[in-house]
Amino acid sequence: MSESKAKDAIEQVEDCTLPADNKLTIGKLDVKTLKKVTESCRECPENAYTPLEPRTLDEMGFIFDESIKCHLICDQENLKAAIAKVVEDRIYTDVQVKVHGHIFDCHLAVLHVSTEYFKQFSSTNLIVLNEPEVTKIGFEKAYEWMTKQDAGPQREGIVDLYLTARFLKMPPLINQLWYCFENIEFFREGEAFKLYIQAVPYETSTLQSLLLTRISRFFLSAVATIEYLQLKPEQIYDMLKTSIISVNSEMEVFMSAFRWMMYDWEARKAHTELLMKAIRFNLMPAWYILSLKTKQTLPELKELLDNPVVQSAINVGLSYTVTQHFMNSDSALQEPLQMQQAQQREWIIDDIAPHHHMYKCPNWQYLNYELFNVYLEQVITAGPHFYKTLKSYKPSNLMPCCQAVVQNSKYISDM
Question: pLDDT confidence of 15, banded at 50, 70, 90?
Fold first, then answer.
């Protein structure tokens, strides 16, 4: 604005008055003020002023001196529950695990935390597992254990779970599974044998050895199964050599070995010496051993008993049986005849078995291969809980006819 225009504007302001109803009027400006106004309205030459430099709040001194006296508390329980739901329901999964063609949507972080195996995968969308030990059901149960607080193993599939945990290197899960395996209340008798059958195709020797000690009274039922006949010779040997199997006599153990061989005689007779090492001939009564030394009508049995190694074992067993009641523990015959006290089996009695009668009882029948097969048919017919009907071998559990024989024998010996 020019100076002349500014003066005109001031004069107009001086001449103007407020509305009539207002008692105040604007007075005239004094000369000093008017001069300042006039000077401020002059046109300034170019670059005649210094521009204002911007300042931040911190530069102007607006700085927080200390924290606010307030506590911000996150509800950890709600956070944990929300994270658990994301993990358990598989929300926002970031990796797929392909197990023998089956896809599992997973969280890679969960796999990292729970296993050593998956830590090698830092960032990926797909991981393929075609290992024999890792089955679909095994991985499914393993991931369920990783993500669910109340996950518990079922008897069916527990071997798959164990093998998967072992391959993926999951020590906490393996320890929990071994707690289940070692608890005799979880796996015994028939359940132990079934779990043993599931474990034998894999390198699980420790687990197999443990389960063999649990079969006990289920042994004769096991011998009647197709699974028993499909075992390898080393597995049959391991089963027959244990002292925990429940039988009425060592003759049943001998017949159990022969039954396995007869399932494929031409191929399996080569394992005669291995299996006969598991038979404790010195636990057989002398009369039964002598019957094995007589001429056999069954060709396969004759071929087995004609084996020189088997004949030697039978002769040693007969020597022990005959002399055990007449020889002192320090006899010179102990070492050459290998007269070490044989470890006993778990002896039992079954009321329906004619060969379980005392051999002096009129109801007793000689146990040959044919009778043994008839007996196994009876075991199969009796059903899965047959083993529960077996009784410990003791005088009070003898059949009445056998108890009468015992009482009569005592009477005769007292005369």
Answer: low
The pTM of the whole model exceeds 0.85: no
- Asked if 197 contacts 370 with a C-beta cutoff of 8 angstroms, the reply is no
Q: How many CA atoms lie within 13 A of 292 on its CB side?
A: 27
What's the CA gap between 127 and 49, in Å, rounded? 71
- pLDDT (0 to 100) of residue 10: 54
How far is residue 198 from each of residues 23, 159, 193, 227, measured CA to CA in Å? Answer: 112, 7, 9, 10
Q: 349 to each of 62, 247, 249, how far by Cα in Å?
A: 97, 8, 9
Task: Please choose, from the candidates 258, 234, 271, the residue with its C-alpha nearest in 3D space to the C-alpha of residue 373.
Answer: 258
Six-digit token string for 261: 């061989």
Calculate helix-pair angle for 250-262, 369-382, nearest 10 degrees.
Answer: 90
Beta strands in 262-310 (DSSP E): none
Q: What is the pLDDT of residues 90-132, one digit of tens each?
A: 888 889 999 999 999 999 999 999 999 999 998 889 999 999 9
With contact defined as beta carbons under 8 Å apart, do 165 and 173 qualify? yes
Query: What distance in Å separates the CA atoms of residue 26 and residue 13, rounded to the nearest whole number?
Result: 8
Measured over the CA atoms of residue 185, residue 186, residue 191 and residue 195, the dihedral's sign is negative
DSSP string, 20-79: TT----PPPPPHHHHHHHHHHTSPPPTT-SPPPPP--TTTTT----S--S------HHHH
H or E stretch covering 349? strand 346-349
* 415 vs 129, more confident: 129
Span 151-193, pLDDT tens digits? 777 778 999 999 999 999 999 999 999 999 998 888 889 999 9
Give the C-alpha separation, 353 to 139, whole Å.
46
3-state secondary structure of 352: coil
